[in-house]
Amino acid sequence: MAITDRERHALICLAELHHLVNVAGPLWPGWEIRSTPLAVYTPGGNAFLLHHPRPVAPFQAVDASELGLTSATTERIGPLYHSAVDLPFLRAATAQPLNGALTGLVPVWLDDDGPARFEAFIALLAREAFQVYGRRWSGGRPSPFPADRYPDLSPVNNALGNVEGRLLQAAWGETDPDVLRTLVRRFCLVRRERRGPLDEALIEYEQHHELHDGLPGYVELLALERGSSPDYRASAEYRRLTGNERYVHGPLLVEQTRAELGRVNLRGQGANRVRFSYTGAAIARFLDRIRPGWQAHLESARANLDRLLEEGVLYDGGDGDEREIVAVLREYGYDDLLEAERLYARQEEARKRELLDSVLRGSGIRISIDVSHLVGTEDWWDRRRGTSLWWDPAHVEKITEHIRVHTRMLTFKSRGTILSFEGLPVVEDRRNKIFHSCLPDGRLNFVGDSQPFSIDRPAEFSEGLEIRCPGLEIQAEAGYLQNADGVLYIKIFQ
Fold it and tell me: Residue 350 falls within a domain, yes or no?
């Protein structure tokens, strides 16, 4: 069986993570990594499934000797199943059901030759595996509130959010109980101040992501710290692969996370999602020192890190709290932060308007695809209602609460319809449920009712509509098309 060196190295890293847990102990009380279904894969290439209770085709059992792995490696990770079929759902690091079992999907990200790539991949494996376990606190429900309405350009929210991150940064390696208590109180006061203008839905959104993004980040850090301990000795296979006895680059990767806390929310950085991975992990580390065994209390705290951290913090509700907030904000340069964020917000709003105009007024054929007939709710990304929307979170711009621009890819699926944008910027209008883009001239292929057709005249199709061109593919059961006023308008029917 042909597998790449990177795939073989990824499986060795996976076995090393099992070795770490066996030697250094569980990364979370009560969590067994061997009970967590995982799929490690190369997009468009080989995929390996393990720990799954019901592996089905196209996955087939594979022997370690076929992969060039030692028996010790496969003994650590258990039975392994392989597929060479290009499975469309294997496109990102996430967790999703696979044959009735929630499964962590981990792409083989070992493309660079950086010295820390193996430790970083082990950390990613730990994070994504724990994502599966962590769904227990949400019952598998999606995020309670989409990021669209989050005030990621609010100068006040960003300036205070940065102060929060730096307070967590100050507590990172602190061991003095009195200093820790002071930092807890200061952090909680600043957070209460920042959340004052936020409604309950937005606060719940923050709490959800600090839990579901932050705790996997905490487990990731714990794996790196334990693996880099002087008392730890890595597995023989990992030592042969790297030439190192332990995770020598682990401290550097941990320090990178600590450093990120000082940058959260600056110029809106990670304001509506990414920062909660850092702050949630930092709060969990905080709790390790002020409340050992806190993990057992997550259920009684309704899976809320805020509630666990605030227990024992007393507020006077008056001048004392106000004076302390003023002193903390002065110490952390809040006024200068606020002015810088105000300037950035003005610049960013202008940039986003220009980006939107560049997509809508681009060269080629302007196209508008109306899917409102398929989608009858606001929450049109919810798979439970028969609709799914996939995009690259690193390449999307929120223009307004209802308008987003995707600059790399977007896939929409609903009731027999598939829209796939690849490398073609697209505007997503959530309110009107329309996708807008500009198609490059030439090589356009339109098929309706199994016959090629021209876009020069209006047409309606009831037995299938198919459009293919560079960057865009459309498949639908029925639809209406009209080319008017320089816009190719397509309304898709069920």
Answer: no
